[in-house]
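Example record for the data management plan.
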Amino acid sequence: MNFSMKDFDQLFFEFSEKKSDPNLILSKEEFYNYTVKIAAYSDRLAKLYPKEKEIAEANKQKWLSENYQDYLLSKASAKK
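Corresponding structural encoding:
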């Protein structure tokens, strides 16, 4: 994935808004599309900024470990 910091910011904030919107539930495909793109950007940062490699790798792993079922459970909890 080759996108700019501006593109990343837009993607990240779009995902955050959709994830926190109590009236919207992302499909499994939408959810993972966002998390994988964000993880890919973290991977790109590691290549661009070798000194930040460990942080970028940790961020990548965090985003790749996001779980759709946990997302759905958080949505159910927010509705209560």
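Summary line stored alongside the record: The two ends are 38 Å apart (CA to CA).
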